[in-house]
Amino acid sequence: VQLQASGGGLVHTGGSLRLSCVPSASLHSFNVMGWYRQAPGKQRELVAAFASGSDKYYLDSVKGRFIISRDYGKNTWSLQMNSLKPEDTAVYYCYADQRVSGNEFQFWGRGTEVTVSS
Question: Which of 7, 32, 1 is CA-nearest to residue 21?
């Protein structure tokens, strides 16, 4: 399974960006879909995700600013990022996992860079 992420870029503080992830498999095949990010010198962290069912997870620092969504018709999931701050600057990775016959498979997209200037 391949994940194709897009939508990164350079914005000023307070601006918005929308990231999208298009997988090579059906959204229905995934157990978890989400976004991680990794800032320079920091560990990768989970930003937002759809867990089992319709449950959504958000990193505390992005709650109220970021919205994760998915479109089964377009077979895509997205991350709308509003009110961006310099501390949101990072490489963002889309992520998904599948659980098949008791085995878990994890997939990562290539990162897309988000830079927020102050």
Answer: 7
